[in-house]
Amino acid sequence: MSQEPTITIGCLAKDFLPETLNFSWNDKSNNSFTNGMKTYKSILQSSGSYAASSQIQVTGESWNNRDPYYCVAKHSLNNKVLKLVNDVKPVSPIVTMAAPVKEDLYMNNNGTIVCIMNNYYPNNIKVKWLKNYVETTLNTMTDKANTNADGNFVLSSFMTVSKKDWDEDTIFSCVVEHSASGSFEFRNVSKSLACESSASPGDIHVYGIPPSFESIFLNKKAPLTCVIANMMSAEGLDVSWYELGSDIKLKTILDDPIYKDGAYSIKATATVCADDWLTKTFECRVKHPDLTSPKKITLAKDNGQEPQTPTVLLYPPHQDELNRKESVTLTCMVKHFYPEDILVKWTSSDQVEDRYVVTTKPMLESYSSGKKSYFLYSTLTIPSIETWNSGKSYTCVVGHESLPLQATQRSIDKTIVHILYIEEDDDIDNLWTTASTFIVLFLLSLFYSATVTLFKVRFIETGE
């Protein structure tokens, strides 16, 4: 596990004849990768055959995230592809949470809560903050991860809270997801919790996960998820969802309990109509022998800021890619949307494989007047230029709650791109034709003026 900004990986080919061998490298999206590439000449071995090697440089972040790279060796007799990936086993984070310092709260009217993720690997980790079980990004900041003596990662995230919120016993939560190790950690802190002893076995945590737009758009249903964590035993657990203000139970399905780090956790899900989710509030009620009284959490759609409709732009392959005659990339840019929950899918006449698609997370754009908006981009790699040249059409489908019918799409194929290029060429040709006409007329006028002047000079000389 390297702490360097970049690391070098390589592959060796040996025992081949004849001498000529060509190396190339591809990244996880099957795009050509040449960063820091060096290829060494074939060397004659004592056996009479040849050996050769090649190397590239990759970022430490990419390698630590277990992104694969492919070494391709092409020889006249056969071709070989070698996959290189970091095979170090993932390590789940140890998550701790610290309450704000009392002196800061009383002297500055605010304080900082710290969430520390320690000794995890690799460095692909997600951190979210909740305020009274509703996700927020206000007054939060996450440092860049560092490495410890073992080469594993340490990360700190911070949330500034007001003295007013703290005194009102607002519950602040740090949610940590580490997909490589399958770890999902949840930590709470509030004024009353800070007064008690630190979390110990039996301190059962309950929190809700709202439905994603994707599930609502594709299934027209809204799954409500209640997570019950840090139980010493799942025996005697009773979980039910209700519409707030009603005692009629909704059909609640409990997953099998998961045992990890000495405690059990369970997800309880109820599915409601998408229209109900838009207007109603729901409540999860939890009973357990270790609880002195039932725990309740509510879940409702955040209708604070008015939704903003996304702008969708679809870009064709760059001419440099087309000139290489290998793979080509389509880019779908989605910007100026709110809220951040959005769906982006690629479609074609053939099924689009997920391994050729890379979609970023929604990223916060600069905003004013307190209004937020997000952007993201998604790329589709077409592995063969022959597939693109066949004229097959590709579509970027975007789903968002602010769109008419909640979806829009943009399509592209080689014919459309070719027409665009032809129109550009025609504009240039028309411009050149006009310019050529003016040049010819200018030259003719010069020739005419010179001829008239010559005749006048001869007329004066002869006296005629």
From TrEMBL:
CDD domains: IgC1_CH3_IgAGD_CH4_IgAEM. This is Ig-like domain-containing protein. SUPFAM superfamilies: Immunoglobulin. InterPro entries: Ig-like_dom, Ig-like_dom_sf, Ig-like_fold, Ig/MHC_CS, Ig_C1-set, Immune_Resp_Modulators. The keyword Kinase does not apply. Keywords: Immunoglobulin domain, Membrane, Transmembrane, Transmembrane helix. The chain crosses the membrane at residues 431-455. Residues 1-83, 93-190, 201-298, 310-413 form the Ig-like domain.
